[in-house]
């Protein structure tokens, strides 16, 4: 009797006609999107970051599956649903029931990758690899009290994850930069368990981002993996913030995992708050409560956070939350009802010193060290949601944030699945960070072509974002339009749907040379705040020349000086974020000697050295800060 794990070779015992019929049938089922396998994702509990978790980080076995021979049968039907020789992914452990089993994959004896971490920077041969890699982690588990739930939580996996627990499909997630979870209560057993994850980072036209980006396609389990034990009734979600109409009042809600009758309490000793919400067979109850004690409003100068504890039945969760308001009023940006100027910088989620995806708190602290040295008070986290260390550290350090989803360049605008994916990534980003005082702007797109299909797509996203969070501002990095004679404006129709009008401009780099900035003007007659979300120039760190020597630090520095004067002439400018804090890997940057796979627009070099432009910007922000 062949064990279920055996692979049926192409000329196996099945008669061709039956085999073909079964495969066609299965393929049809798949094509109609009938979910023929696994469970769907479960909702990620709010503040998973702060919950007691069992970490599964560390060394995982792996093997490369370039031809997907372990995922598809020989007629390209996924083994999950194949009619040919059900594959028991637990058998990958080399624990085939029958030793005569012929199988050609096993984790036993396999090499190891660190999780969290991209595979590109861990194994030289995988630097450019785009495809599938299978991971396995064995973990021990003791029985849960029956009424408890066990969630398997991923901070992010780029780009698609197929997850199996003890050979059974837990589910699938697509989207490389947001958290997801599966309820594996029914899949785990006491003793040793096998967690197998297939990660596929292949780019695709219909993906989000699409198949062309100006950043490295780091693949892998790039953020933490952990188990979260939860009682049957737990705090699923909450939002706590200041009432923009009354800065002495808290607004928000608490949502539980199920309908519940009984008290839910929200405590903050320092604020002298003890709020009891009486749930009456309800799952979600809103809150509104005046704060009688004096308290400190959160701001870059005073990043004060207050401890909150939420509890229901046996569940208890704590969080640190800064209290502030943000809104656009005319062409001003008001933080706590006072005008603020965003002294910013853009950043990818990458530590150039290590040439890899950031994974740790230390990686995040490295970026913030450079940002603080710059006298900046704001970061644009480009072009996708960064790891959760970033907004949490930004809360504690007083750095305002622009967060965005990778709706970048030429997305497949008319593809319904593409829209669903973009909306899911938006919802997951907002859900994860809607209690972070540092986050003030949600951005929906970057440099997307001005077409009707794209406008329809982005308007839907904007409507979704506003339905999820009315307390933050919406923006998108748009293209500017040239009116001639050195005058530029924004006439992109999507600007109407944003609260802050933002645009990228590369005068002096992609357009002419820096002196063109001296006679450049921007005019915008709508009463909306304006942010310049990108400008910059490439410079190889340490390469010196005169101000017209392209790729020298001097050219980059001269462009920064002239651009800063151009920005000073923009009437309703409320901030800007030069591109970019540090050099970063990009497959699109292959100039020998200068780039060699790196985008050199950083003002911090690949080796962490500050370029001339860093000091120019630092001085400008110093002066700006004094005039506050
Ligand atoms: C674009 C884009 C960035 C890119 C940059 C550049 O504006 O938004 O992702 O890296 O320009 O050309 O360096």
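-> sequence recovered:
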């Amino acid at each position: 009797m062949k064990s279920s794990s055996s692979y049926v070779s192409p000329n196996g015992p099945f008669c061709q006609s039956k085999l073909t019929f079964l495969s066609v049938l299965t393929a049809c089922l798949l094509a109609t999107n009938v979910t023929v396998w696994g469970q769907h994702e479960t909702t990620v509990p709010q503040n998973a970051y702060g919950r007691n978790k069992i970490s599964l980080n560390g060394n995982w076995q792996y093997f490369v599956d370039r031809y997907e021979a372990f995922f598809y049968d020989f007629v390209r039907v996924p083994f999950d649903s194949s009619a040919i020789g059900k594959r028991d992914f637990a058998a990958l452990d080399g624990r085939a029931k029958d030793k005569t089993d012929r199988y050609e994959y096993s984790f036993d004896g396999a090499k190891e990758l660190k999780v969290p971490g991209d595979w590109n920077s861990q194994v030289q041969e995988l630097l450019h690899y785009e495809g599938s890699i299978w991971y396995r982690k064995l973990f021990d588990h003791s029985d849960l009290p029956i009424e408890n739930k066990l969630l398997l939580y991923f901070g992010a996996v780029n780009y698609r994850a197929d997850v199996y627990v003890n050979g059974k499909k837990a589910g699938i997630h697509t989207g490389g930069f947001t958290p997801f979870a599966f309820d594996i209560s029914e899949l785990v057993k006491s003793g040793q368990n096998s967690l197998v994850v297939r990660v596929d980072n292949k780019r695709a036209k219909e993906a989000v981002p699409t198949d062309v980006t100006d950043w490295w396609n780091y693949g892998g389990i790039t953020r933490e993996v952990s188990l979260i034990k939860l009682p049957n009734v737990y705090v699923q979600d909450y939002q706590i913030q200041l009432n923009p109409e009354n800065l002495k009042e808290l607004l928000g809600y608490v949502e539980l995992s199920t309908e519940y009758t009984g008290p839910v309490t929200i405590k903050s000793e320092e604020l002298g708050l003890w709020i009891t919400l009486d749930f009456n067979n309800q799952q979600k109850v809103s809150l509104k409560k005046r704060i009688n004690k004096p308290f400190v409003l959160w701001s870059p100068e005073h990043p004060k956070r207050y401890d909150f504890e939420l509890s229901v039945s046996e569940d208890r969760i704590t969080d640190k939350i800064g209290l502030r308001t943000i809104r656009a009023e005319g062409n001003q940006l008001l933080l706590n009802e006072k005008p603020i100027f965003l002294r910013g910088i853009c950043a990818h989620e990458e530590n150039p010193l290590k040439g890899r995806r950031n994974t740790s708190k230390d990686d995040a602290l490295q970026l913030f060290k450079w940002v603080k040295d710059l006298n900046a008070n704001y970061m644009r986290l480009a072009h996708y949601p960064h790891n959760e260390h970033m907004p949490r550290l930004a809360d504690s350090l007083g750095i305002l944030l622009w967060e965005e989803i990778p709706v970048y360049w030429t997305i497949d605008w008319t593809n319904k699945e593409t829209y669903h994916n973009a909306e899911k990534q938006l919802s997951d980003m907002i859900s994860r960070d809607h209690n972070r005082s540092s986050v003030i702007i949600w951005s929906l797109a970057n440099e997307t072509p001005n077409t009707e299909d794209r406008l329809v797509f982005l308007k839907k996203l904007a409507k979704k974002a506003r339905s999820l969070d009315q307390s933050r501002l919406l923006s998108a990095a748009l293209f500017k339009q040239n009116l001639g004679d050195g005058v530029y404006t924004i006439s992109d129709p999507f600007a109407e749907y944003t609260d802050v009008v933002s645009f990228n401009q590369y005068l002096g780099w992609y357009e002419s040379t820096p002196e063109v900035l001296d006679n450049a003007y921007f005019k915008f007659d709508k009463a909306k705040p304006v942010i310049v979300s990108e400008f910059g120039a490439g410079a190889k760190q340490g390469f010196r020349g005169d101000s017209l020597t392209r790729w020298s630090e001097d050219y980059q520095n001269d462009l920064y000086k002239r651009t800063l004067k151009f920005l000073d002439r923009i009437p309703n400018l409320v901030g800007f974020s030069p591109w970019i804090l540090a050099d970063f890997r990009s497959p699109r940057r292959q100039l020998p000697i200068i780039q060699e796979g790196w985008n050199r627009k950083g003002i911090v070099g690949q080796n962490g050295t500050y370029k001339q432009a860093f000091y120019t910007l630092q001085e400008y922000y110093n002066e700006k800060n004094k005039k506050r």
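Residues 214, 383, 446-447, 504, 534, 579, 599, 601 surround alpha-D-glucopyranuronic acid (CB under 6 Å).
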